[in-house]
Write a structure and sequence with these properties.
392 residues; Phosphatidylinositol Phosphate Kinase Iibeta, Chain: A, domain 2; Phosphatidylinositol Phosphate Kinase II Beta; 2 domains; alpha+beta
């Protein structure tokens, strides 16, 4: 639209009203400039750090390649810490065999993982509208997320790693985000920096047309969408999704059940404030009628379990789901018209004393409204209800 056309479209409006609208639009444009993906090139503030991450991760994964996994994980594997010294930094890797075992169960080779994390292409910085103080990086192929974490969050993950792995083994199509590595990088004269590597829920993202972060509540759960035609990535929230549905048809009962299972597990960890990530893209015509194959990912049973055993039948009833032959099948569910990417992330917020105080403060500040800081049982129940109410 030309300058003249813009002036004509505002004809009849008071001059002050048009000025206010222009200021508001200018403010939104400034916000949108801060969102999205940015290549971490040599001028970027994180270029040096991400180069060290690449070098350190390549060496850590090479150590995994050179030392094949044991048949069964031991308690020592969960406690293992390996330090590798590089020219300008040192890198520590935690529970290496455990995460290598998880990567293998996802059908991922160590060479493939190493190539993605240490390829020549620059990492990408992802800047979102999240309140988190963490730094988010994406591998150049957008397959893996790297996120900085504080020491408390890393300790929480490592202390619960065994039951997390047991949960994924029992429910191999769990929606929980897949943690693939925990590391700490130490650069001289700087603070140690912890970071985790995760499988991206939104992979591959070439055709995704909308992304949402869902917590099942109302307060602070609206985000201004990007302007039409913009390439800026804006992660929308609960109130943006109102009036819409996840249309799955025959897959709906499976999703409802798996959300119940995963949130019940998080309730046992006494955590809250986790998010259901959701994205969708239209299916191509040929994808709507393609033959689907039974997923065999992470198909693990106890040694000697017979095919007819009650344990195996229960396993199949919980997890036997039709999945497309796809690069990231664990987080992909196809409905009649849309392909959905769904995963549960941010599982580190424990319901301790501070969160209890925050709960009572928010009750006073937002009477009659729903907000994120509630007890783990209430949070679990509410998110399950949201999924029930927004699927068909």
């Amino acid at each position: 639209m030309s300058h003249t056309e813009m002036e004509m479209s505002g004809a009849g409006q008071p001059r002050r009203s048009r000025t206010v609208k222009r200021r508001r639009w200018g403010g939104l444009r400034q916000q949108w400039k801060l969102l999205g993906l940015f290549e971490i090139d040599q001028q970027h503030e994180f270029y040096s750090l991400t180069c060290m991450m690449k070098e350190g991760l390549s060496a850590a994964i090479q150590n995994s390649i050179d030392n094949p996994l044991p048949e069964e994980l031991s308690n020592d594997d969960f406690r293992m810490e390996v330090t590798q010294i590089h020219k300008d930094f040192r890198m520590e890797s935690f529970a290496g065999p455990v995460f290598a075992s998880l990567r293998r169960s996802l059908g991922m080779t160590e060479k493939e993982y190493q190539h993605s994390l240490s390829s020549e292409g620059h990492y990408l910085q992802f800047i979102s509208n999240s309140k988190s103080k963490a730094d988010f990086f994406l591998t150049n192929d957008k397959r893996f997320f790297l996120k900085t974490q504080n020491k408390r969050e890393v300790r929480f993950l490592l202390s619960n790693l065994k039951i997390y792995m047991e949960h994924l083994e029992k429910y191999p199509h769990s929606l929980l985000v897949k943690f693939l590595g925990v590391h700490r990088i130490k650069i001289p004269q700087q603070r140690k920096k912890y970071f985790i590597v995760m499988q991206s829920v939104f992979y591959p993202d070439e055709r995704i047309d909308a992304r949402y972060d869902i917590k099942g509540c109302q307060v602070s759960r609206w985000t201004e969408p990007a302007p039409e035609g913009s390439q800026v990535i804006v992660v929308l929230k609960d109130l943006n999704f109102e009036g819409q549905f996840i249309t799955l048809d025959q897959q709906r009962p499976w999703l409802l059940r798996q959300v119940e299972i995963d949130t019940a597990f998080l309730q046992t960890l006494n955590v809250l404030d986790y998010s259901l990530l959701l994205a969708h893209q239209p299916l191509h015509q040929d994808e709507r009628h393609q033959s689907l194959s039974f997923a065999t990912l992470i198909m693990r049973t106890k040694k000697g379990a017979r095919t007819g055993s009650a344990e195996l039948r229960d396993f199949q009833a919980q997890n036997r789901r039709l999945l497309p032959n796809f690069k990231n099948p664990l987080h992909v569910i196809d409905g009649p018209e849309q392909r959905y990417f769904i995963g549960i992330i941010d599982i580190f917020t424990v319901y301790g004393f501070k969160k209890r105080l925050e709960h009572w403060w928010k009750r006073l500040r937002h009477p009659g409204q729903t907000f994120s800081t509630v007890s783990p049982p209430a949070y679990c129940t509410r998110l399950c209800h949201w999924v029930q109410d927004h699927t068909k």
